[in-house]
Amino acid sequence: MSRTTTPSSSNADTAAHPWLTTRYRAADGRASDNGVRLSQVLAGLSYALDLTEGQRPGHSIRSCLIGMRIAEVINLPREERSALFYALLMKDLGCSSNAARFAALFGSNDHDLKTNLKHIDWSQALESFRYVVCNAAPGAALLQRVWRVLAVLSHGPEGARSVVRTRCERGADIARHLGLSEATASAIRALDEHWDGHGQPYGLKGDAIPLHARILGLAQTVEVFFTEYGVLTAYDMAVARRGTWFEPTLVDALLSICDDASFWRELGSGDAVRLQLVEPADRVMLADEGELDQIAEAFARVIDAKSPWTYRHSHGVAEMAVAIGRLLGLSAVELRALQRAALLHDLGKLSVSNLILDKPDKLTDAEFAVMRRHPEHTFAILNRLSCFRGLAEDASAHHERLDGRGYHQGRRAHELNRRARILSVADICDALRGSRPYRPGLPTERVLEIMDRQVGTALDVECVAAMRTVLTDCSTVDPIDIPAARIVPTLVEDYQQAA
To answer: Are 455 and 464 within 8 A, CB to CB?
Structure first.
């Protein structure tokens, strides 16, 4: 993204930190009319990352508040605080990329697996073993659980490193795609390294770990224990891991605010407004319309990484929706809104376990009930953001039907505008053309046959007609009829074990 420093920033500072750009804060402290505060947009979208990690809403924001307070105590140079601020807020950008492997390998809900992992000292062999035993195929028969434990353990330390490496590298890549600094990306990449060198995935030790990453690791772990058990338990954990997980001087900095009752009391609210108080005032970044497009694209990558079976779904829906919209005469403004809504329509699926998303069999009633809630989560996340609030209704309507038998609201034809109708058609089309756990992708003629049956009852006749034109006129070939797990080689063995 192109951004500028505030008027007080020097040319040398801009050269040293090229992510500081062309747009700046007004002198009186108000954001200019040239864009919205990037921090507000990312803070709102961070709730989607919290869902993926199985954390309570506001986890990323609270971690950011803790980390920035530590930075204040250690007198982190002001020019370095912006990189830390965005690293704290976006630390979990890669969290969706290893969810499928977690679920397939353990035969367990990936959200539960990630939540439980946050509460143990997994660098200790005994605790790590207990974690595997307790979380492998919960609820299954004893023999099945034993085989699952053996399967997990057979991957050894390199298997664990591989899972963490996927998350860290993906998160750093998406941070770069967002236009954030290399310092921010490097911090996210080293999020799970430990001071004593026993972290993951590269075994970095001491000062070899970027300082920003050391702060991230402490802040996020303290937040988890604070939210779950309270401030005293959080401090006990930090002290117990001082010198192993965490740099001693950072733990000492944390200890210095132990008696700041107001800070810990207010932290419990996870208030995004308070985030503005810790955002470096001379480094406030604004996002214009083009950069909001870039943010939607980046978070589509987060969404599509959740399951290998939908690894291009959000982008495919966006491409089809825009093509349909052009044929139907939508304006440039409407097409931009439609593309953003399409890219972000499945944000709520980050709340759904991969045991459900990747299930090769028919979903149970309980599982389908969970799946039916994902548009509700999409709406809730987008509705938090003034810049995307206008997309919330359309993006969350992709499973609605003209006859009112869709979900999550059961809206009828008169309640669905053209953008919502286009998005519904594009979503179904891309889903049918793509591979799923229970079937290969379908050829064009089969897709058209299936969708024609729903014209007038579920789907808009004009939108389907435009989709037909797009499919028959485009030069793209039919989907390759192979399971998506073969497209993502690291999943092959895990899916064989899960079968």
So the answer is: yes
